Amino acid sequence: MTWKKEPQTWLAIAGVLLLWASAFAGIRAGLRLNPAGMPGADGYGPGELALLRFGTASTALGIFAAATRMRLPDRADLPRIGLAGFLGISVYHVALNFGEVTVNAGAASMLISAGPVFTALLSALFLNERLTGLGWSGIFLAFAGVSLIALSSGKGLRFTPGALLILLSAAVAAVYSILSKQSLRRYRAIEFTCYSIWAGTLPMLVFLPSLIHRVPVAAPAATFAVVYLGLFPAATAYVLWNYALSRMPASLLSSFLYLSPVIACFIAWIWLREVPTVLTMAGGAVAILGVILVQTKGQALKASRLPREHAQEGERAV
Q1: pTM given for the model
Q2: What pLDDT was estimated at residue 154?
């Protein structure tokens, strides 16, 4: 529980929420969706966007790794790291991008918000973390708040086959958190972030031929948005997320993700001129109350504790 007294952990969480919330507007700007909901000619397709985003992140992290002479992972850990990268980076982001083409923003935000529920369940099974009854109540209260935000779009909740892709993203994000938690006992946050993002970028190379043809004709604003996604919501935010994950239980950390749609609404207000409605603000207030409940009353006494050497590694994570 020492993480509650560490300002750097809270700063990392705040940075993650701000950067990941901005990713919603960034993805829309990169896809440049037309009124029919399909990528415009001056934007990037879902697969192209994913590769350009994480190609940018991989390059930036590669430069950092070379400059600091970062150690390579142990061969025995490669299967777990590879699986984490494939699920948490490749599958999550490609499925999310393709899903958002046919699922409206309200339905997408509801579906992706199932992620913290999946994380709490998997944390109980594999990490021996336990939430109290009030903790579970807080999670579902926060989910209700996100649902209000989704309904506030005024367009209803239109689910399409792409909804399954969004739900898949939520599920694999939870698995990524569990695999990350286990790997962070051996590696610093910056190290594991580099390994997993590099591993997750490799399968995206199937989109390289189309990306090569798309870059010259894409609008500069769309390219700028995707590069921003790679440097900040990808490379920087994943380092901050893994740092926080090395310091606190996965089930508690994941509950903070319910604040992301709240922040995203205000970022979209500034970036895309999308004014939040009264129902949006009410949903945001409910989501915030749910997260507060999880953080203050959610952790059971039997929740897993990090070994001392794990905590010491976390102190050096950033």
Answers
A1: 0.81
A2: 53
